[in-house]
Amino acid sequence: MGSHTAAQFEAQGLSAGELAPPATPDAATRASGRLPPSAELPPSAPLNRLLPLSLSQREVWLDQRAWPGSSHLNIGGGAVLRGPLNIARLHASLQRLVDRHQALRLVPRSDGQQLLLATCPARLEVIELQEASDAEAEAAMARHWHARMAEPFELGEHPPWRFILLRAHAALHGLSIQFHHLVMDGWGTTQVMQAWSEIYQSLSQDGPA
Fold first, then answer.
1. What is the pTM for the complete model shown?
2. Residue 167: what are its φ and ψ, rounded to 5°?
3. Max intra-chain CA distance, the chain
4. Is 108:35 a contact under the CB 8 Å cutoff?
5. Which of 192, 147, 140 is nearest to 167 (CA)?
């Protein structure tokens, strides 16, 4: 996980080099095609309706079907943020991110179809850390990131992603985003983090961090 100030998240976003290395498994890499937000969806696709998987998504789906209960198709990134962070604004900006990007409202199903939701509540999981020092807190963040990456997503109930904020204290946070490869790839993960930070920045005009 990279180290940054919260002001960096607010002012410029996190670039690909600032993210933790995407945890993209070999099987996911073999799946053809990228799945950035809104890509590969029919432009006139109706909301709240079942849609077919794209060809590249179907390859990933077949891979997951061959290994049920496996987390080998999970991908993601993370960063350590230093400095004050407005968690309410972070959550509000996440909701706007989900509202804008269809890929974050897709619910792939076990039957090989996917549901595109008209709306989806943005779930920001906030976890309070209890470590005594910043070094211990950062080590705990890394352990948590790897542990959650090993947890498989249950397909069919909710969009398969996790946005997690680990709070050590008011000036030290760990941010992690995790997806199933059915809805995102490494490039898309970077774009999501960038877009999230830009929305957060735009909301900063409404008040202090």
1. 0.78
2. -110, 115
3. 53
4. no
5. 140
Instruction: Say how far apart CA 30 and CA 154 lie, in whole Å.
Output: 22
Q: Which residues pair with 108 in a beta bridge?
A: 114
Sign, Cα dihedral of 194, 196, 198, 204? negative
Q: Phi and psi dihedrals of 28, rounded to 5?
A: -70, -40
Res 16: pLDDT:
29
pLDDT (0 to 100) of residue 25: 44
Contact 77, 16 (CB under 8 A): no
What gap in Å lies between CA 202 and CA 36, rounded to an integer?
Answer: 22
- Say which DSSP state 4 is in: E
Contacts of 95 (CB under 8 A, 6+ apart): 121, 122
| pLDDT by 10-residue block (mean), the chain, 209 residues | 48 34 41 42 62 95 95 94 96 97 95 94 96 95 95 94 97 96 93 94 71
3-state secondary structure at position 157: coil
Spell 129-148 as b/e; 16+ CB within 10 A means b.
Answer: beeeeeeebbebbbebbeeb
| Whole-number Å distance between alpha carbons of 125 and 163 | 6
